[in-house]
Specification:
This protein is α+β, with helices and mostly antiparallel strands. It has three helices and seven strands, in the order αβββββββαα. It has one domain: Peptide deformylase (Peptide Deformylase). It binds nickel (II) ion.
Amino acid sequence: MTFLTSLPFCAGVTTNNFVPMACLTILTVPDARLKVKALPVPLVDDSIRKLMDDMMETMYADDGAGLAATQVGINKRVIVVDLGEHTPDMGPLKFANPEIIWRSTEVKKNWEACLSVPGQSAQVERFTAIRLRYLDENNTAQEKDFDDWAAICLQHEIDHLDGILYIDHLSALKRNLLISKARKFRKSE
Ligand code: NI
């Protein structure tokens, strides 16, 4: 996920002058791999920690706020999130097998963007608060509540693990328009 304010910087990794070795390639619509449902990881070991670190670097390089392994073509239930100034107390977080175990009754429409749908944004309805069960980078089981931007971003990233993009919450007409605009945007980069 990206914030609307960061959209002009939502460029592919290949356009950066400096590309760290660990940067992964972000898939963009309409790549069929974005529709794959990811598999749980049995445990968070060194290979998963390396994946989390590489994903974090990839996300920072593209000025993103969240990234799911599905977006880099890896079929594992892993996401990373750093909301930066939006939630300064939270810091960067890494999740394996994130599962929403509680949702608020309240929902709200917010603007969302995504590194896999470059240059586009749309309003999507999300729960305003969620409780998450997951494994952290130390393979420790956690349960934590998130609201506001963190809740929105986490719902967006967990959707990715189920092969769902934010544009899948829109009408087919709007979705197809955004896919077509994202393809043109990517070609023009
Ligand atoms: Ni996204």
